[in-house]
Structures are given as C-alpha cells and as structure tokens.
Specification:
By secondary structure, this protein is α+β, with helices and mostly antiparallel strands. The chain has helices at about 45-55, 85-90, 90-100, 105-110, 110-115, 120-125, 320-325, 330-355, 370-380, 380-385; strands spanning about 5-15, 25-30, 35-40, 135-140, 160-165, 180-190, 195-200, 200-205, 210, 230-235, 250-255, 265-270, 270-275, 280. Among the domains are: about 5-140, PX Domain (2-Layer Sandwich); about 155-210, Roll (SH3 type barrels); about 220-285, Roll (SH3 type barrels), CATH 2.30.30.
C-alpha cells in the first residue's frame, strides 16, 4: 500500500477549554486514503506556524518569487489576543483554507509536512482534563456555513445519550462502550454511525446502541413518506433478517422511511423492507459514494442487539412491514385499479345477462300506514303524543 495521504479535511467547529488555562482549539474531521476518519484538535497558533513552514518549503507556489504564481491560500496572522469572537469569525476562512489545501498539487497536499501535521496525536485521543475544571464548551459550524459563514452557532450543550448494551469496536475509528455509559454526541450521521465522546475518548458508535435520557428517540425520526423518494443502490447487500431486502448494485428503489439507526425502509416494486442507508445514493446525484464503501460495513440494527436494557418504560414504536406496504401509494393505487376492473367485469356480466331476463323483477310492496287506534294501543307515549 502506498504512503498515507489526506482525502478531505472538514472543520467541525471549535472548543473552548479551561485547562490548563482558558484557550480555544479547532476541531477537524480528517478523512484519509484508507477510508479512516479521525478528529484532531489544533490551536490557531499551531496552524499558522504550519502555514509559514509550508510557504518556506514551496516559495514559488506561495508567491514569494512571483505573486502571480501563488496557489497556496492566504491565512491571516493570529491576533495579539485571540478571544472567542476572533476564533468564531475565523472559521469561514479556515474552512476554505483546508478545502484549498487538500486540492493543491500532490507534491504539496501529500507532502510529509501536511500529513504529519494532521495525524492523530496522543492528546487528540486523550486530551488533558481535570475533573475539577469546567467542562469544555463546544461550538459547531453549521452545515450551511458556505451560504452563511457568519451564522455560527452559540455554545452547544451536546446531547447526552446512554448505551443500552456493551459494544465492542471493530476498527480504530470506533469507540467501545459498556451498558450504561453516558456519551455526548458530536455528530449524527444519517448512515447510522454517530461521532461521540466519553470523557477522554472519542470515536464512531452505532446509533442503535444509544438512547436519549429524556425518552424514546422515535420523536427525532422523520415521518414515513409513503409516496417514496427515488434512490439507487451503490453496494449489494444480502438480507440477514426476514424483514430486510436483498438488492444488487444499480437497482433503483424508493425510500419510504428514514430511520436514525441507518436502516431505512425501502420499497422495491411491491415489496418493502430494511436496507442500509449507507449503501444508497439519491437518484440524480453526481458524486458517487462507491469508493467509500469498500472497507465499511453497515451498523448493527437495534433489533439484533442482545441484552439491550432501556431505562424507559415506553418502548420504541414499531411499524410493521405490512403497514408500510398497505399505506404505500402504489399499493393503494393498485387496489383502486383492481376494484375498478372487477366492477367493470361485473357490469359486463350484467349487460350480457340482461337479454336473457326479459321479466322485470317485482318491486317490494309498500306496507300500509298503521291506524290511529293501533298507534294509541301499541306505541310509546312519545309517539302517541305526535298524533293527538
């Protein structure tokens, strides 16, 4: 295998830390060529020193010889005092810097200096903490930050979830859990893998193993869309459970319910079932996700977790596949078509039989109206009053 290089760097936001003294660090999600994803933390002073060395290594590309040849992006110098406002306002520039950096020629974007700077350090996995010091405050960059770079979120109290069972990690990017562990969720991915932190540990965890503290989490899920949304299968999958579907790469299906654990309810022709959302791509999208699926597996389903212990008396609402199928607009339409056809056939039969039945059917006789004496003798007081 070749040398490691970075495919993508995404700025997640920044943290305000209080140990050993108050300071700010930026959070980066670094995606590597082996499809691993790591979160690293860097102070802006570190980033600026890295930037200065990079310019010295490539004087032509930095514009030191001829400004017209500059392709290395600009980065403003740190202020005399970097407070929260300057840290917040710098996020747009820093996100753009990282995007440009990884798209530079390989001699720059894949050089040892860049690779080494964004590699996971010991303090990324085990940040210095003190139980007596205030918990760090997390500020996340909005998903639509490209449209509104100044619209940065305020201090976020990360959602706390509880592990319902033990989970053993299967890769270095994941995090192991014990039943009852309380984790803070940094990022919820719709593929069913959530990025969490637990004390000094961070990593990806299957959403199926987590439940919110304040109640069952189906309230966070979208309502079913029985009209269906067209998607294309990017990776084949063979059903393991009875309520799952087996599909091949390239199949076109319709998504009718997007669930938090990354297993979506889909419809193929008249059949519905569960399928891993990470193996699907919305129809018409240009960017293919095939290259990212080679070494990744679907997250486990909640129904397959053994010894799951919820703290909530009320369980998660379950919708049966028969309910999904019967509420499907295609199913309803097909039923209407069948009823229409059967009615037309009945009409045809009647029309064919009419010439054979020349006799008109006898109409039922209208019963005679009861007499006044009969009503007074046999009816209730209320009825008798009406004729008096």
């Amino acid at each position: 295998m070749g040398d490691a290089f970075i495919r993508h760097i995404e700025l997640l936001g920044y943290e305000k830390r209080f140990f050993p003294s108050q300071h700010y660090v930026y959070m980066f999600l670094v995606k590597w060529n082996d499809l691993s994803e790591k979160v690293v933390y860097r102070r802006f002073t570190e980033i600026y020193e890295f930037h200065k060395v990079l310019k010295e290594m490539f004087p032509i590309e930095s514009g030191d010889i001829n400004i017209e040849n500059r392709i290395i992006p600009h980065l403003p110098a740190p202020k005399w005092f970097d407070g929260q406002r300057s840290t917040e306002n710098r996020q747009g520039t820093l996100a753009e810097y990282c995007y440009t950096l990884v798209n530079l020629p390989h001699k720059i974007s894949r050089c040892l200096h860049v690779v080494s700077f964004f590699k996971v350090r010991h303090d990324d996995m085990n940040p210095v903490t003190d139980s007596q010091i205030k918990k760090p405050e997390v500020f996340l960059l909005p998903k639509d930050s490209k449209q509104s770079l100044t619209d940065i979120t305020g201090p976020i109290v990360l959602q706390t979830y509880r592990a319902i069972a033990d989970y053993e990690k299967s890769s270095t990017s994941e995090m192991a859990l014990k039943a009852g562990d309380m984790v803070d969720v940094v990022e919820k991915s719709e593929n069913g893998w959530w990025f969490c932190q637990l004390k000094n540990k961070r990593g990806w965890v299957p959403a199926a193993y987590l439940e919110p503290m304040d109640g069952p989490d189906e309230s966070e899920e979208q309502e079913p869309n029985y009209a269906g949304e067209s998607y294309v299968v990017q990776k084949s999958y063979t059903a393991v459970e009875e309520d799952e579907l087996t599909l091949k790469e390239g199949d076109t299906i319709e998504v009718i319910h997007k669930l938090l654990d990354g297993w979506w309810v889909i419809r193929k022709d008249e059949t519905t079932g569960y399928y891993p959302s990470m193996y699907l791509q919305k129809a018409g999208e240009v960017n293919s996700v095939k290259s990212e699926l080679r070494n990744r597996s679907a997250p486990p389903r909640r129904s397959t977790i053994r010894n799951a212990k919820s703290i909530h008396k009320q369980g998660r609402k379950q919708i049966s596949q028969e309910t999904y199928r019967r509420n499907s607009k295609k199913y309803i339409q097909s039923q209407w078509n069948m009823q229409g056809n059967s009615q037309n056939k009945a009409n045809v039969i009647i029309e064919k039989n009419e010439p054979q039945e020349n006799k008109a059917k006898a109409q039922p006789a209208v019963p005679p109206r009861p007499s006044k004496d009969l009503i007074l003798n046999r009816c209730t007081e209320r009825t008798r009053r009406k004729i008096l």
